[in-house]
Amino acid sequence: MKFVLKWIVNGAIMVASLMYYADASLWYAIVTATVITIIAYFLGDQLILRMTNNLVATVSDAILAYVLLWLAADSFNWPLSAGELLVIAIVLGIAEWFIHRYVLQGDLKVQRA
User: Fold this and answer.
1) Which of 63, 57, 69 is nearest to 96 (CA)?
2) Does residue 75 register a pLDDT over 60?
3) Which end of the chain is more exposed for a tag (fewer CB within 10 A), N or C?
4) For residue 100, how far is the Cα from the chain centroid?
């Protein structure tokens, strides 16, 4: 369920942003959002968040999103500027902060039971 929430939230942000800023097709935007979400879930949520804290995991997810979006923009010849990539990464980082809080809150309830 946590992955599905992350996929929906990140997907909505990335798909809308890529279609707006890069004039990306819906299919390429969905595929890009899905790939980035999968990588961020395993690296950010399952590894970094569990080893550190919300702030470190959020910053690492935002940096990861910036780098992966930059690579996708380069691969698909999307005209994304560094500023546009930064805006998308910051919005994703804000969303990730709340997703991580939800994930951590659920983990605490499981540990207490």
Assistant:
1) 57
2) yes
3) C
4) 11
- How far apart CA 30 and CA 15 sit, in angstroms, is 6
* CB atoms near residue 95 (< 10 Å): 18
Residue type, 85: L
Domain count, the chain: 1
**Residue 15: per-residue pLDDT:** 97
Q: How far apart are CA 65 and CA 4, in angstroms?
A: 18
The domain in which residue 35 lies consists of: 2-112
Give me Rg for the CA atoms of the chain. Answer: 14
Position 80, amino acid: L
Whole-model pTM over 0.90: no
Cα separation, 46 vs 23, whole angstroms: 32
Model pLDDT, residue 20: 96
